[in-house]
Amino acid sequence: MTSFRGESNELFPDPVNARAEIFVSDYPTAITPADPARLDTRPPLFVFRIATGGPAGEEGTRRVLRALRRPLDDRGPLVPYALVPAAEEPVMLTEQAGQLLENGTPRHMTPDRYPHFDVVRSLVTYIRDRPQQSVGGYAEELRRHACDRQQAERRGLLGRLPRAASTDVSPDGGDVKGWLLKVFWLSFTCHLPRWVWSRRISRKVMRRWLGGMREAGGRRDLYQVMAHVAATQAPRLRTASDERRQEQALQTLEKLLLRALLEDLATPRTGRYLPKRRRRTARPVLLVEVPPPGADGSRRAERFLRVLHELRDTAPRPGPLVVAVGRPDDTLMAELGARESSLSHAATALGSQDGTPVAFTFDEASLTGPGLPIARVEPHRRFRTSWRTTTTLLAGTAVLALMAGGVAVDRVRDGGDCVGGTASVAAQARSRPVPLNAEGWYTGALKAIADQNRRAEAYAAKGRDVRTVVAFVSSPPRSEDDMRFDGTIPELRGIAMWQQQLNQDAGSDENTVPLRVDVRNTGEAYRDAVAEARKLVAEVRDEKNAEDHQKIVGVLAYAQSRAETRAALQVLGQEGIPTVGTTATANEMLAGNATRSYWPFTPDNEREARIEANFASSANIVARRDDSDSCSPARRAIVIRSSADLYSRSLAGRFVSAFPGTTRVFDFNQDGDFGPQPPDGAPTLASASVLAEQLCKALAEEPQSVVYWSARAKDFTAFISAMDNRGTCVDRPVTVLGGNELTNVAQTGAYAEQNWLRLYYSAHRLPDGYASLSAETRQFLSRYDAFVRTYGAGADPWRQDGHSAVSYDALHVLSDAVNQARSRDERIERRSVLITLAGGITPFNGATGYIAYAPDVNAPPVDKTLVILRQLGTHPQAVLVCGAFDMGESSRKQGPPCVS
Q: Quick check: 730 and 707 in contact, CB under 8 A?
């Protein structure tokens, strides 16, 4: 086989008709995009297979790796990257990759350390190399080893202090006085720092990620968890004759190590002026050589890819770009679910979010033929000074500023104007609450949809293409309380409003496909969601005899993230039924079969929790102890969650991880349903009165606390009543920050008498009265008012609620997908709608903002609008707006706390 030498051997292969030029062009920009906001995405795993075997195959693998590495290095790394060869040492590829990233810091760019990776690496290595160790007292042994390793590598302050066994730095003296001095000397210079460091790193690792993993087994201490892992895996590690059992043990250890590395690669934030926040100027890159099965290093490479694939759903974004090159076997490719594609599709996937691993095979002709050069990466910012120099300059400037404006600094530190003012939810409240008409409003929304269904059927009678979409909703509200705690009525109104607009447009536009909407009840709290999804699957499999206008082309669902709705999405995904979400926000909804056909609409919990944590810790929202008219950022968060509820558990966990201050968690559920014991050991409470008592005690200990509410609205209302009835800590304002779950009930005026409550919550649409309200949102409000006059049957409390706008825009997305699918498929089959959604529909301005789905990724619209509202009586006020609420707007332009 002919091989190219010199520079030609570093050119990327150029297979015939593979469009390699597209990949070559997009590869550098995916690593260092012009817009740093694009670094928030996490590309899928890329696998480049080499079809040729033997030495020729090895040379082909090296050629592709060199071509991918060349643009990342110019006599030193330009971006953080690691090229991991196929050697067998060290045993774990993650260990070598992390060390290469840590030691290959680009000049003046990335001085960050790897705290999670470093400590887990030291513990994993210790366990792996000592499988014969006894289990008794092993947790303390691991703790000592982690401290010794930290000191041996001279990391941080601990590395500069004496070690536990050191006596040469302690004071001399043989009498009692000398002995006491010696004891105190070592206590303060050695034992105490080690104790503080070990507790701090354990708390950080457990709370950020390890506590939520199955391997933790409910334990709350890092060293106890690792001792448990050691006890479980040591018998496997000791069986040298059974490679399969050893491999299982190593895979468990590598899973922990790789999860720690991914945590560190996601943690650093793009800095502005802080010199140690520079990592996000470029995406870290891992280039992995994969030898053929049985060759040296094949097992460790395959193990790394399996573990990486297993962690994709739980690891934080963005993480590294991982490209594996070599000869993985077909079994591994099947486990990864990698799909063979073209290089042009691989280029598209570089800018996508997650997705199925992408595979491409280079044949012998392409590996021996000419190639294309890949341009050098160009980091977004070049730092001409080291971080130490920048630190010195900034520190000096800060000292001078403090000396010059000490009084002003004290004022800012102690407090300032409260965000959204000092008024409580009782301000501007109606003298009488809006009379609620559960049955009339629900019936009115269904009547509007029925009217439009008849209109669509009239189009079908005239020969027009008409199709049906299914809307899965919860049970009809039976009382005012049901209506307050459930957003079904606003959701149905939004669906009816867009259906009305769509069918009206179809009168003049022959290319518009009118839609029927089949509303299906899934029971209280979506308890029958799975059964209804299976019923729908059975129907679509047997719809050959159905009339065209009755054929189902998509589903609109769900408004809540629950275990039942998540399972229902798996059923719909298995059948490939196109599904557009409404207000379900848990990241966990998008997993497994759901990734085949489900497109969420609202920002996921990870983004929402990050923005809310940044807002709570940086905005003046908590009333000062000595002056309730002045506020400060929250130093502590008291988190109320319901661990058995998917939405609540997901949102609370991500908020705790993102909040920079201390947190205390209460697990609250009036039904006493707490599911499995949560790993953080939070107290479980079924009584609202007991919760109010515990919360008052916590607020007395730390008044500068925000109450973060992620449990359901029904539990929140019970808690508010208990706080009001007890009256033990309502003599001063209490600040509550909650999710979109509170929107519906808050705007009915249910809390309008609580003078002590300052309530902030998230929403997905700008309220009326906001200065920069888009023309489309104003148009939506006008249509909403007209709809309520026709079908509302009385006054309405939800004009500012976002549920109706979300379902309005979500049906808009699904109808656009149907219209665009018709242009390529006259039969308008579900598969065509699915392909259209996967490719990304044409962006549009909607009631909730600018709607643009990224192609080839099942994720919410790019930079989807998220608003934090301050409730005043029945009128909310926007205090933070993040995302593309209009064309041309972006979180990057809005700055912190929208981005961090």
A: no
